[in-house]
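Quick note —
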Amino acid sequence: MSKKRGIFVSCSEANHFCDKNQYKEATFWEKVKLNIHVLYCKACRKYSARNAKLTKLVKEPKVISINHYDKEAMKERLKQKMSENN
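Predicted structure written out below.
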């Protein structure tokens, strides 16, 4: 792609726009150029999809952790098992 300001952008520019879009910093025209680019570029379409998935995972983590009481109980059982083996 050429350096002139047009509707078609290089892959590196498209990736930059994609990153900006992920953080809600992309302008309207950057979004338009990105969407046009991903129509014909399979690699950038894949990059954009992965970026969207990453954003969703960060915003909506499905991490489940145990409560403090259960964690302490597990530590105590581990200490007991370790002392039994010595």
